[in-house]
Write a structure and sequence with these properties.
single chain; 189 residues; alpha+beta; three-stranded antiparallel sheet; 10 strands; globular
């Protein structure tokens, strides 16, 4: 059983965090989650994803009263009208958000009070592959760069350690760097 005396750190209730970790350690079946998104094409490059319910801790979670709506598009140079970030930019956002959340949680667990966490992500891509102009370049990013600026009440080496540990635990970082099988089904009418 984990013991916590300082309960809120970096906006995280560490008592609940360690309690959740203990519960999942004792009942691993509670660790099975399924996140979902639905998407609908609107026009041209514009489409919208909605995200609301998910499966967690042995049952359907219905705590979100309303769905999150995320519009995606393409810039004019890629035949869009900038209705939203393009899907590759959403991937950068997902990676940044997951790494940042992981840093905050790891910092809270390791008794590091963070003052700020900022990041810049860059994704280098040769779009000829995705556009079908040339089969040699891959369809996606050739490289993603992540640069963090982290400040807090710990020495630089401890802050770097927090970022390293967070990177090792980030779900999206794992998916991006190790890949994940994707099954595509099609129904037509």
């Amino acid at each position: 059983m984990s013991v916590v005396t300082d309960t809120i750190r970096n906006g995280v209730d560490t008592g609940k965090m360690f309690g959740t970790l203990d519960l999942i350690r004792d009942q691993p079946e509670l660790a099975r989650f399924q996140f979902r998104a639905t998407n609908r094409w609107i026009d041209g490059a514009h489409n919208r994803s909605t995200i609301q319910g998910f499966y967690a801790a042995g049952g359907e979670d219905t705590s979100r009263a309303e769905a999150f709506a995320l519009d995606a598009g393409e810039p004019a140079i890629l035949l869009g009208a900038d209705e939203g970030p393009n899907p590759a930019e959403y991937l950068l956002h997902a990676l940044a958000a997951c790494l940042t959340t992981s840093i905050v949680y790891v910092g809270a667990a390791r008794k590091v009070r963070l003052a700020s966490v900022e990041s810049t992500l860059t994704g280098d891509m040769d779009v000829r592959g995705a556009l079908g102009v040339d089969d040699e370049p891959r369809n996606g990013f050739e490289r993603i760069g992540v640069s963090f600026r982290v400040t807090g009440d710990a020495p630089p080496e401890k802050l770097r350690e927090v970022v390293e540990r967070a990177t090792a635990r980030s779900a999206v970082y794992d998916m991006v760097t190790n890949g994940v099988p994707v099954a595509v089904e099609v129904s037509t009418s």
